[in-house]
Amino acid sequence: MYRKLSNHLLNKIRTLKALFVITLALSSQLSFARSLNVGWELWFPYQYRNKAQKLIGLDIEIFKAILKKADLTANYVELPWKRHLRYIESGDMDIAFGASYTTERAQYAYFSIPYRYETVGLFIRKGKKIALDKLSDLTQSNYLIGIEMGYYYGNKFAELNNNPEFSRHINAVIDIEQNISMLLKGRIDGLLADPNTIKAFCKKYKITGELARYPLDIYQAQIHIMLSKKTLDKTLLNKLNQAIAVLQKEGVLAEISNKWRPTVD
Question: What angle do CA 147, 152, 154 make, to 5 degrees?
Fold first, then answer.
């Protein structure tokens, strides 16, 4: 009787364990059942709408390829980058792509493995003469340089910008259109931006040849997908990382990047 009871209990325990494992698997699948809330903002040639109002761009196409490989879906919402970061922190948005890694952001978001690289340079009005050997020389100059709110321009810039003597030479705006407009009107002396963005913007607005890159490297880094820690977990992070790794191995990410390169050359 005792042996029979023990076997019965043992089988029951095994059944409960199996049910627990199945429940975990189902809960993991259910967490991906809904569409992810993903933000974007106007950022040529990475994120924008074409004349037919279709959302396109290098980052958009790469991200959609990642979602397809990971068998996920998304809803897209346009909003400024600084607000987007706040929403990732609060959990009002699930995902942001086109993101640089920072320790501050890592406190409230998971970061995927990189899916592309980004460079930031200093751009001035063509023909304008300025003299800067290094970024810190701004402190002793009369120049005013434009940046976009919420964007990351590297550790060196962040350190310098904590100094009021440096930050008074920085003009922060919501988007690059404001900075380019101010640069062309002579209200700022230069702006920090990704070279591909500048090339695509100049081509779109027919101002090619109006701007020039100043020989001063600002920042170069890997670009990631950010996931809100408030709404998503590492299970989904791993799923996205696996998709990125497969697409890299298959050459899909390189193919998409090459496809967009002629747009900005």
Answer: 105
Task: Dump strand ranges (E) for the chain.
Answer: 36-40, 48-49, 55-56, 74-78, 95-99, 109-111, 116-125, 145-148, 170-173, 190-193, 211-228
Sequence-ordered strand ranges (E) for 109-193: 109-111, 116-125, 145-148, 170-173, 190-193
Tokens matching residue 33: 């059942």
Measured CA to CA, the distance from residue 103 to residue 94 in angstroms comes to: 19
Tell me the two tokens of residue 35: 């569409």
Q: What is the pTM assigned to this prediction?
A: 0.78
pLDDT single digits (tens) 170-216: 999 998 889 999 999 999 999 999 999 999 888 888 899 999 999 99
User: Residue 224 burial (CB < 10 Å; 0-12/13-18/19+)?
Assistant: buried
How many alpha carbons fall within 13 Å on the CB side of residue 185?
A: 8
CB-side neighbour CA atoms (13 Å) of 111: 16
Measured between alpha carbons, how far apart are the two ends of the chain, in Å?
83
36-40 and 95-99: which strand pairing? parallel
| β-sheet bridge partners, residue 38 | 76, 95
Q: Residue for token digits 């049910």?
A: 19
